[in-house]
Amino acid sequence: MTKKKNAFYAQSGGVTAVINATACGVIETARGHKDKIGKVYAGRNGIIGALTEDLIDTSRESASAIAALRHTPSGAFGSCRYKLKGLEENRREYERLIAVFEAHNIGYFFYNGGGDSADTCLKVSQLSERMGYPIQAIHVPKTVDNDLPITDNCPGFGSVAKYIAISTLEASFDVASMAKTSTKVFVLEVMGRHAGWIAAAGGMASTEKDELPIVILFPEVTFNKKRFLDKVKTMVKEFGYCSVVVSEGVRDRSGKFLADQGLRDAFGHAQLGGVAPVVANIIKEGLGYKYHWGVADYLQRAARHIASKTDVEQAYAMGRAAVQFALQGHNSVMPTIVRASNKPYRWKVGMAPLKKVANVEKMMPKSFISRDGFGITKRCRDYLAPLMRGEDYPPYKDGLPRYVRLKNVAVKKKLNQDFKI
Amino acid sequence: MTKKKNAFYAQSGGVTAVINATACGVIETARGHKDKIGKVYAGRNGIIGALTEDLIDTSRESASAIAALRHTPSGAFGSCRYKLKGLEENRREYERLIAVFEAHNIGYFFYNGGGDSADTCLKVSQLSERMGYPIQAIHVPKTVDNDLPITDNCPGFGSVAKYIAISTLEASFDVASMAKTSTKVFVLEVMGRHAGWIAAAGGMASTEKDELPIVILFPEVTFNKKRFLDKVKTMVKEFGYCSVVVSEGVRDRSGKFLADQGLRDAFGHAQLGGVAPVVANIIKEGLGYKYHWGVADYLQRAARHIASKTDVEQAYAMGRAAVQFALQGHNSVMPTIVRASNKPYRWKVGMAPLKKVANVEKMMPKSFISRDGFGITKRCRDYLAPLMRGEDYPPYKDGLPRYVRLKNVAVKKKLNQDFKI
Fold it and tell me: What are chain B's domains?
């Protein structure tokens, strides 16, 4: 009699408002196939949980706790920033993984993350052919950066896009109210070190019907101080105010991050700030306008309270599809989101081979950025709009969302030795 | 036959997520008493609209547009930061106000703002006895700072409190997920230059049932670097991470704002950042922890998408009460919120004489701050909880809230001369 295999699931890289919805999709779907999948063990802190045999027994969580993951932001099992080296460089790690998988009868490996994590998952998927341990490794896409290839978009991004569009809209209304005798420019710093997808979402606050003066600084467009100041000045002249949405990854002509202005504190120590205060200062010195600035940072990727319904549904569907792919016998693949039509928005689940996903970064197409480099095009709007659509509110108690914290009961260790990371 | 008097309404100071709900309360209530009140003229950009005879005819707006103000953040008619001087210092301004009021048959003056605006309203309310122009001036409370006296709380604050509590909760979940191999501390900067009401709201993310490691820096508590670092270290040792909520107004022993660190850019120019990066840097240098920081700025006070239901209701009620007070013949008063009971939360509308409101700042009671100075007490929780309670979502279209922008049709000028501000 062949023993039913258990599954391993872990979260990797920066977390999102909906990565737990994917976890929910994985666990609920696995629970629905108890004839084929045993337990789902979650890695505590990503792949580190696998290496250190620090596993969480998700079967100890109630159905309602697992269901509540769907509306809980962050990584319920802990995430990590840890990249597996290649087999030749660190064979010891792979042998350890096999030892842990073997000890806990793990035959399915679900890794939920972005580009780096896809690389880890690809390496694990090769354990079967290269080291003879039978495993099916499925990568589950997730990244607010929206930079994975093949998939039309990435779970996590739609909710950040919605948050940034709403925040830009609301802050623009605010600065418009104040502009006559006070603040004329509001600068909002958003995530996105290489690709400007999140910054682009700020442009969605302005619509054809209700135009708002929004200037976007993309990492894809080299910062030109004179052109930027001219643009802001024109906007303020026409509208009385303007909002600037700036990506953290904007660089100047020398390729240096704009945020890196060589600031020194009173003791001469280097002080690295965000890019928003730097841009605000450029405006003050160049145009003399009164300004305010904000930095959304974690707030944007944790904002489950205003997550996109599309995003929540897709995040869940990716988790479900990953388990289904495993049950169908696949290895070394990733479920993808395939856009079937824009109006009405229709999408379905596709499949991509992992070797075409790992370490490939999808940048914004040039056709998504307006000719002057400070805005988005209609093509970009058509792409972004459905991803932000729909509200999926969490339940509330006493004014606060009711997010779940799992018990995260550890699985008893079976191996004798510890493993040093 | 005595001619029906028109009303003047204007918004002053920093705007909020719910000041337009107050405008809605004023205009809808006045429209319900057409036998006694003629038109409601809004001042464009606060009192400046009155001085420059730049009036908006709100009767040109449809009932549905006015109703939509209830769920629209910011100041629909524009706000201002402009303080009337005393009658002796600038008699010219008062004569001008009377000229404008007379020309447009204005007998009711509703001024919607905080402490400084109450002072302006008080001065206008004295026009009757000191300059013989019959006017009833009612101040309508509004301030995210929650620092007006007599009233139990101020419209605008409850929604900021809810936003900061939710953001702190969500960011804490995020950093908790990342802490093992990456960020250990998240620092969130919030508004509040003198009083720590908004910072206190960050403490609401942690509950008795679900404790989170949150360290609050209040403007009421002098910053002590050693004690702060000890606190953060203890929290990180116990929980693995921590969140710091820092008020923009925190000062060191010498009374200097912590944000003012004498930073210089590459050219030696002074660079004023926010306090969040300064605190983050103190943590990095003192403890070596990896950190992230955010600055909520306008996002917090414009966040109508997650406004408190209590706050929206109270903001509307204050507008309605102001008109009712005027109809009852009152002058130089302000409607207040009177807390009748905590559990269940019950409140009613009261009335305060304006001379007891203007220029008085209500600080947080000492009993609201925990003994170590880094947290809030149960008394503070009992006070804050009902103010954040309830959700009042705006309608959405295509993923974005549908906020209204009024036509803001100007009233034809009747005076021959311009007025220089």
Answer: 5-143+306-358+390-401 (3.40.50.450), 157-302 (3.40.50.460)
Over chain B, what HEC string results? CCCCEEEEEEECCCCCCCHHHHHHHHHHHHHCCCCCEEEEEEECCCHHHHHCCCEEEHHHCCHHHHHHHHHCCCCCCCCCCCCCCCCCCCHHHHHHHHHHHHHCCEEEEEEEECHHHHHHHHHHHCHHHHHCCCCEEEEEECCCCCCCCCCCCCCCHHHHHHHHHHHHHHHHHHHHHHCCCCCCEEEEEECCCCCCHHHHHHHHHCCCCCCCCEEEECCCCCCCHHHHHHHHHHHHHHHCCEEEEEECCCECCCCCECCCCCCECCCCCECCCCHHHHHHHHHHHHHCCCEEEEECCHHHHHCHHHCEHHHHHHHHHHHHHHHHHHHCCCCCEEEEEEEEECCCCEEEEEEEEHHHCCCCCCCCCHHHECCCCCCECHHHHHHHHHHHCCECCCCEECCEECCCCCCCCECCCCCCCCCCC
Q: Which residues of A touch B204 (CB under 8 A)?
A: 399-400
Indicate which residue of B145, B147, B311, B392 is catalytic: B145
Are residues B302 and A173, on separate chains, in Cβ contact within 8 Å?
Answer: yes
Name every chain A residue with its beta carbon within 8 A of the beta carbon of B262: 265-266
Mutate to test the interface with B, among A299, A309, A387 (most CBs of B within 10 A): A299
pLDDT tens digit string along B269-320? 555 569 999 999 999 999 999 999 999 999 999 999 999 999 999 999 999 9
Is A145 assigned a catalytic role? yes
Say how many CB pairs under 8 Å bridge A and B.
242
pLDDT, one tens digit per residue, over A252-308 is 999 999 988 766 655 555 555 699 999 999 999 999 999 999 999 999 999 999 999
Q: Do B45 and A180 count as a contact with CB atoms less than 8 A apart? A: yes
- Say what the pLDDT of residue A1 is: 46
Using 50, 70 and 90 to split pLDDT, how confident is the model at A78? very high
Q: How confident is the model at residue A2 (pLDDT cuts 50, 70, 90)?
A: low
Catalytic residue among A54, A145, A311, A392, which? A145
Give the closest of B79, B272, B393 to A178, CB-based. B79
Per residue in B21-65, pLDDT (tens digit) is 999 999 999 999 999 999 999 999 999 999 999 999 999 999 999
Residues 75-94 of B with CB under 8 A from A: 75-76, 78-82
pLDDT (mean) for B217-230: 97
